Amino acid sequence: MLLKYQQHLQRQRDVVAYRMKKLAAKQVEMTKKTNAVKEKIRKKYEDMKRVLDEDLRITLTQLDTEHEATEKLIEERIEDCYRLTQELDQELSNIGAQVTKQEVDIRNPDTEKRISDALKRTDPDLIQMDEFKNQQLLSLTINLLLFIRSQVPVTKKLFQSYAADVVLDADTAHPKLIISPKGDSATYTDTWQDVPETPSRFETTLNVVSQHGFSEGRQYWEVEVSGKTYWELGLTYPSIPRKGREEDSWLGRGKESWCVEYFKGDYTAWHGGVQHELPLLAGRQFTRIGVFCSFSGGLVCFLGADTMTPLHCFCAGNFADTLHQALCPGHDNEGTNWKSLKICDASRSAPVL
């Protein structure tokens, strides 16, 4: 029996060793695929840069060509005036030598005509830039810039296509939270609300989750966090504890949820009770925070939605249950954190202030 058990363990060990080999191969495969996509995207950006650089060169060359033509005409007119001044200087010199005490008619009609013609021909007002055309060119350039800005960051355009319609479930909200009638905001209050007790209601932490969950595809949502000094945002399984010990119900403290927490200028990511400090983000403030989830890819990513700045990304491998959006507006934090957390329309960019 011992020999058979030994053989059984050896076979199991071989299976585990083979699994390690397969995982290592998977790691290499995914690294190659990621690098290949990054290289293709990098080349496309280089192509765009070359196209824009070439268009800039052509545009500036056209303006330079027009400017050179105008400069040449002005130089010709200056040269005409210079030659005429030399001729007039000579004529003045000749007249001075011929002056006598007798009155003599020394007016020269040809000279008068040359002067008149030269002044007409060299009038600076006759030399004009095509300012209307230049303004059109500038306008097209501005439109191009606006179009490019409307398309970047490209992650913004992509995630906007995954925008989810998130409605908070008031029946899950802690009694010290006020949920708006539309279910699009959560506000902390010192007053314990008169709400019915339900099995789904959080009793020990200031959480609320969405009415509807999802178990496939990709979803993206954004929450306005401006003016707040404490908040938590994330995703959770329905199995997150609602009662009992306070710590068990906090977002990210168990394996049922993922979150990013903001408290007095510091950002921290949480999952399974493991804390991931984000020191590079210390002091950064965002108007909106975005949360992207790829169910098939097992990804939960947090971003500063104003600039699509990555905050933290979790890879779950695969999700075991339906996911719900979750948030915690936090306590009053010594009177600095009364503002609501408001769910935004993630399909549209935040207005530029």
Automatic annotation (TrEMBL):
PROSITE patterns: B302_SPRY (PS50188)
InterPro entries, per database record: B30.2/SPRY, B30.2/SPRY_sf, Butyrophylin_SPRY, ConA-like_dom_sf, E3_ubiq-ligase_TRIM/RNF, PRY, SPRY_dom
GO molecular function annotation: zinc ion binding
Protein known as: Zinc-binding protein A33
Keywords: Metal-binding, Zinc, Zinc-finger
Source taxon at top rank: Eukaryota
Residue span, B30.2/SPRY domain: 146-350
GO cellular component: cytoplasm
Pfam families in alphabetical order: PRY, SPRY
SMART domains per UniProt: PRY (SM00589), SPRY (SM00449)
